[in-house]
Amino acid sequence: SRGHMATTRLHKLAYLSQLRAYDSVGQPLNELVFIRYKHGPWSPDLSQVIEDFEAGAEDILVETTPSEHGVDRRFRPAKDKTTVAWTDNGKLILREIWAKLGYVPTQVIVAICKSGYLFKRTALAEVVDFISYAQRRMEALKTLEKSREGQATIVPAWGFEWAVTKEGSGFSAENQDLLGCITQGDTLEELEANMLEASLAY
After folding, report:
1. Helix extents (H) in the chain
2. How far apart are CA 61 and CA 165, in angstroms?
3. Torsions phi, psi of 127, nearest 5?
4. What is the DSSP letter of 112?
5. pLDDT tens sequence across 162-182
6. Which residues does 29 contact at the CB level (< 8 Å), separation at least 6?
7. By the 8 A CB rule, do 154 and 140 touch?
8. In the prediction, which pLDDT does 82 show?
9. How far is the C-alpha of 144 from the C-alpha of 18, rounded, in Å?
10. How far is CA 135 from CA 90, 138, 187, in A?
11. Rounded distance between C-alpha atoms, residue 193 and residue 77, angstroms
């Protein structure tokens, strides 16, 4: 649907998808650049695409299907070929983002984007530095792997900083940006899934 909240939501979900790609594979999902804006991360490139769509671009079709939440809208190219080629990892990330955030209220998604250290440490109107974020995360995961039981390591995940501790079986984590937000998991993969759930419930 059109409107301010729909546009805001799209920018934030695209930002979280890009962030998740760096968390998962250390590489961007696409070439979108995001800027710190007063209402959260904003992409000028995505904004142009939205403007083209709302102006009635002829190369986009909208398919609507009923769902338990109302009506789902799916956008697809009207032409036989698309200029965007998704990798298998990219498709998995997009499916994960939709499964976890597709029906989360927009104001909650905005709050998640704006609460993390990655967004907060970016100056107003400056580009969000995903590359440095990914490098810090890679170094932190190496440190965590070598850490002893009970020793905490600051690990970037979902745009936040988490104090992750090896436990007897699995891991625990405390969000350094959302005080009192804690979670745990038997594996790092499970832990990071639970990190998002804990942040959304905060």
Report:
1. 4-25, 44-54, 88-101, 106-115, 117-120, 130-146, 188-201
2. 48
3. -80, 135
4. H
5. 999 999 889 999 999 999 999
6. 17, 18, 20, 21, 90, 93, 94
7. yes
8. 47
9. 24
10. 20, 5, 21
11. 32
Q: Give the rounded distance of the alpha carbon of 52 from its chain centre.
A: 24
Task: Please say whether the beta carbons of 151 and 139 come within 8 A.
Answer: no
- Each residue's pLDDT tens digit, 10-40: 899 999 999 999 999 999 998 899 999 999 9
Place of tokens 């990798």: 87
Half-sphere exposure of 41 (CA within 13 A, CB side): 34
Tell me how far CA of residue 117 lies from CA of 55, 112, 120, 130, 199, in angstroms.
36, 11, 5, 12, 13
- Label residue 128 exposed, middle or buried (CB < 10 Å: 0-12, 13-18, 19+): buried
pTM to 2 decimal places: 0.83
Q: How confident is the model at residue 3 (pLDDT cuts 50, 70, 90)?
A: very low
Q: What DSSP assignment string belongs to 29-87? A: SSS---EEETTEEE-HHHHHHHHHHHTT-TTEEEEEEEETTEEEEEEEESSS--S----
Average pLDDT, the chain: 87
pLDDT bin (cut points 50, 70, 90) of residue 48 is confident
What residue has token string 């170094």? Answer: 139
